[in-house]
Amino acid sequence: MGHWTTLDTPDGQVAAWHATPTSSPRGGLVVIQEIFGVNEHIRAVADDYAARGYEVLAPAFFDLEEKDVQLPYDQESLQRGLALANAVGLERAVEVVKSAATLLGRAGKVGTVGYCWGGSVALLSAIRLGLPSVSYYGGRNTQLLDETPKRR
C-alpha cells in the first residue's frame, strides 16, 4: 500500500503516490495518470506494480495547475481533465517525469507506463529522456510523429 509524498519539479512541488515493494526493488517505475488525475484507480495500479517488486511514483501532474484533482469517470470530468491536461501540457509533464525518474534512480533502472493522456507523456519521455516506456492508448501520440528520439 502506497502513501502520498511530495515531488520537487522545475515548476514547483506536486503530490505523488509512492508505492514500495516489500523487498529490494527490481527497478523504478513512473506511473503516468489518465486525465482523471491520480485517483483511486491509478493508486491501485501503482500499488499493484509495487506488489510485483517495483518502487513506484505516480505524480499528480495536475497539481501544477490545481491541487488535489481526482476525478470520477464521467463526461463532465472528462472535459475538466482535458482542460487541465492542456493547461499542464506535454512539455511540463515530461519535466515532472524527469524529476520522478531521478528520484527513483536509487531503485535501479527506471521506466514509465502511461494511460490515455499519460500514454502520450510516456511516449514523449521515451523520446526525449531515453526512458523505457509503455504507452497505453496514448491519445496524443500522433502529435509526436516528428520527434527525434534521444540516442543513448
TrEMBL record:
It comes from the Bacteria. GO terms for molecular function: hydrolase activity. Keywords: Hydrolase. InterPro entries: AB_hydrolase_fold, Dienelactn_hydro, Dienelactone_hydrolase-like. The keyword Glycoprotein does not apply. Residues 15-149 form the Dienelactone hydrolase domain. The keyword Mitochondrion does not apply. This is Dienelactone hydrolase. It comes from Xanthomonas arboricola pv. pruni str. MAFF 311562.
